[in-house]
Amino acid sequence: MRTVDFGVAKLLPDVDRADAWLLTVDGAPQSYVDLADPEHLEFEYVRRVAYVVEAVCDTRAAPVDVVHLGGGALTLPRRFARTVPGAAQDVIEADRGLAGLVAEHLPLDAPGVRTHVADAREWLAARPDASADVLVADVFGGSRVPAHLTTLEYAAQAARVLRGGGLYVANLADAAPFTFLGSQLATLRAAFGADAEVCVLLEPGVLRGRRYGNAVLAATRGELPLAAVARRCAADPFPARVLGTAEAVRAFPGAPVRDAAAADSPEPPGGAFTVG
Fold this sequence. Notes:
- By secondary structure, the protein is an alpha/beta fold.
- 30% of the residues lie in helices and 27% in strands.
- The protein contains 9 helices and 12 strands.
- Helix 1 (44-57) runs antiparallel to helix 8 (226-235) and helix 5 (152-161) packs across helix 6.
- It is globular and about 45 Å long.
- The two termini are 13 Å apart.
């Protein structure tokens, strides 16, 4: 246990896997990593992010530049170092203490990964146009997405940094009536343009309004390999639905969010993402 910049972090060993660890901050799970098997992804939503990124990267001939907004225990950078050959990866982590804890206790043995201690939006604003192929956003303050990473102004920076056909993938969390998810879908479509392709991946129980849970939202000005993503999601131990642009827009209506009206994502129900 260690006090870091934004809370109290704990590394909890997994008794079922020899060198696997759960990272929590203030009781909320932040990351799970298996040092012996970096391709193992314990959390369902992390697997869904990986399915989208890897399906897109499988269509690319050249190595890609990947940016991770939110570092945690570097779960996806460790996996992509193996599954996305030649990828150059930049990881942006705002919590210096957390980054130090991970570097000390969960050492990274992967080429092409650089960690930067910075606010995600400030780092994006300083990046050149068209300098990344994939941008993965998984930033939570405790169990909520910070307000400044939910707006059209932020999404416009993400769209600017991505190359033509680049992929943006975000981990969000919401529950019916999906007001937050709808606003984020509308925000991305406004930033990426009316012709952008989007998709939403989520567990059927969440989609039916039975519970609060994670939703993975992806956007590109190119083409999403939805069939490949759907096959991967269907084969998962916890299958997810994949909603393409038209279906997602119908299911999750909303309006773009501007900086002046931004708020953190909704507070989850008590105990939803808490480890005792």
